């Protein structure tokens, strides 16, 4: 071999040696580490959908799912069993070299063992989204290297142990996402969404490196530390949804690095005052749902980077400070449900979302530049005058609510310029007059149209037929004079149709016109001048009345954007009481035909709605009409029927005994008919008022309902006389707000109908003959 060949061979050997020394050795999981993992695995419940392939016959355990080892020593340093069905974690404490432990979403139960504090090399612990209970062990304070801890979304109780103040490496105290991407960049501790209480320990103020603190959704009832300026690196502070007390934490706002503050849904009181700071990075401020009062401070203008400001549901008074105009980056402002007043400054119209509802504002400045508003909510104030025509120039407007004000005059046709992007047009309870403009040809996004309780007249705009997304039409309590809009029955998503208390007239049914309304859930056409008969099949296509479906939200609602969430409302007479629904439940089904001149037999197809056992409510109110013949036996198929009002008709025969088996039937009214025979003896019948059966002289079996002296009810008036009566009796009473799960109603205005209250049959008939 020549010298050159020797050199070449030696070079190859040296190169291989260097490469071998530079590359990590092929590590093998140490036996004690493997045994600890297998012991831990034996405690798993069997999960066929996500099995863990750990066993004695498999190769190096460092290649097992969820395991990471040290490249050189073979010690297990990371265990990631996110979303794995587990029982407990006790056998893990033999893995003394663990640095990362992620067992989130793993169905863990029981208490966090105090021996967790013996794993002294841990830098990350994620036990979030489990069913852990009990106290946070104080031994966690021994983990001096700990940078990230997530214990959120469990059911932990008790106070925060003061030993956590020893974790001076912590930089992020928060509720964090379950994803473990970029863990090496995070320094996290999460205590959010538990049942922790008590006070924030004083040693917490030693954690000066923290840049994110979140204790949201617990049961804290104390005050915040009086001086929080020591958190000089703090960027995000969230203590929302607790019961923190005391004054506004002024010192918090002296931290120049602060970007987000959320104090919402607590019990803070007093005025809002900001500390002096020469520079602030604050972008989002959430102070809603507290008891703050006084003026909105002019010093709000120092936060030049502010993008969103939420002050709703407090007790702020006075006017909107003019200094708000300096907040050039602000795009979301919510001041709803306070006691603010005066004029709304024009600078707000350059924002994208403005919510000023439930205050005392009386006027607003017209915009001085192009408006950018996408969602505008001015409901329940004291605005007056004509419809603000500058809204017609707004491009991209998706939500407009001017309800419950004093606006008057006509709804301008120029609104068609903004209608193409609107999803909700809510103008109810004003004094608008004139005709509804026919402006909906391009309103293909419109879902809610509510102009109820004004003084509008004329006909219903035919261009509404183009609104294929329309879910609610409410024109209640106006002077609209038109025939029944059967053409709306073709709309594929129409759920709620309310025509109540107008001047609609004519028959509901036409021989060659399809009934439609397959998706209809609620219809109220009461107190109009509808006439004619209904054929037996009239309700047969109303398929949505026969079933319910799974919905993401239990109530009819629209998510307009990240800041605006609108729930549809309506007013109906339920159990004889005019009731305001502040939200409409998705599975609510109601039919109200009362106070018209419909006559003939009750359509048999009404009883085809036999799937009503899936519903919470069905209210069939067809009183004050001229229905004749008997009450269909098949009404007993409506097993979830809660309210049945057949009063003031010409019904004859007996009340079907099978109705006594409807256990959900809590309100009924058969008064002023020609009914005869025994009253059903079901429990629900025995609980009714005696007046529910009055003016049916041939009914008997009422002793338990009306008393022993009322074997049958004397006929004080014959049904014809009741129908001819001009008397309209309204007893208005104030009632309370009720949010019970079965009621889902808001403000209830007692509008008690104690007799046949609509226009008399004879008067209506005469008016139609003229």
TrEMBL record:
<keyword id="KW-1003">Cell membrane</keyword>
<dbReference type="InterPro" id="IPR032675">
    <property type="entry name" value="LRR_dom_sf"/>
</dbReference>
<dbReference type="GO" id="GO:1905392">
    <property type="term" value="P:plant organ morphogenesis"/>
</dbReference>
<keyword id="KW-0325">Glycoprotein</keyword>
<dbReference type="Pfam" id="PF08263">
    <property type="entry name" value="LRRNT_2"/>
</dbReference>
<keyword id="KW-0433">Leucine-rich repeat</keyword>
<dbReference type="GO" id="GO:0030154">
    <property type="term" value="P:cell differentiation"/>
</dbReference>
<keyword id="KW-0675">Receptor</keyword>
<dbReference type="InterPro" id="IPR001611">
    <property type="entry name" value="Leu-rich_rpt"/>
</dbReference>
<comment type="similarity">
    <text>Belongs to the RLP family.</text>
</comment>
<dbReference type="InterPro" id="IPR013210">
    <property type="entry name" value="LRR_N_plant-typ"/>
</dbReference>
<dbReference type="InterPro" id="IPR003591">
    <property type="entry name" value="Leu-rich_rpt_typical-subtyp"/>
</dbReference>
<keyword id="KW-1133">Transmembrane helix</keyword>
<feature type="signal peptide">
    <location>
        <begin position="1"/>
        <end position="22"/>
    </location>
</feature>
<dbReference type="Pfam" id="PF00560">
    <property type="entry name" value="LRR_1"/>
</dbReference>
<keyword id="KW-0812">Transmembrane</keyword>
<protein>
    <recommendedName>
        <fullName>Leucine-rich repeat-containing N-terminal plant-type domain-containing protein</fullName>
    </recommendedName>
</protein>
<keyword id="KW-0732">Signal</keyword>
<feature type="domain" description="Leucine-rich repeat-containing N-terminal plant-type">
    <location>
        <begin position="31"/>
        <end position="70"/>
    </location>
</feature>
<dbReference type="Pfam" id="PF13855">
    <property type="entry name" value="LRR_8"/>
</dbReference>
<dbReference type="GO" id="GO:0005886">
    <property type="term" value="C:plasma membrane"/>
</dbReference>
<keyword id="KW-0472">Membrane</keyword>
<keyword id="KW-0677">Repeat</keyword>
<feature type="transmembrane region" description="Helical">
    <location>
        <begin position="729"/>
        <end position="754"/>
    </location>
</feature>
